Amino acid sequence: MLTAEEKEIYSRHLLLEEVGLEGQLKLKNARVLVIGAGGLGCPVLQYICAAGIGTIGIADHDTVDKSNLQRQILFGYSSLGKSKALEAKKRLSDLNPTTKITTYTDGITIENALDIIDLYDAVVDCTDNYQTRYLVNDACIILNKPLIYGAIHKFEGQVAIFNYKNGPSYRCLYPDAPKQASISNCAESGVIGVLPGIVGSLQANEVIKLFTGIGELLSGKILLYHGLKNTVDTFSIPKRKSDFTDQLKIEKKLHSENYQIVCNPIEVQLDLKEIKQQYRQVLDVREIHESPEVTLLNPIRIPMSEIEQRFHELDPSLETLVLCQSGIRSKKAIEFLKTKLEIKKIDNLEGGVNALHLTQ
Amino acid sequence: MSTNVVYYGMISEKLDCSSETILLESPTEEINLRDLFEEKYPELKDLSYQIAVNQEFTETLASGIEVSEIALLPPFAGG
Question: Which residue of B has its CA nearest to A179?
Answer without folding.
Answer: B48
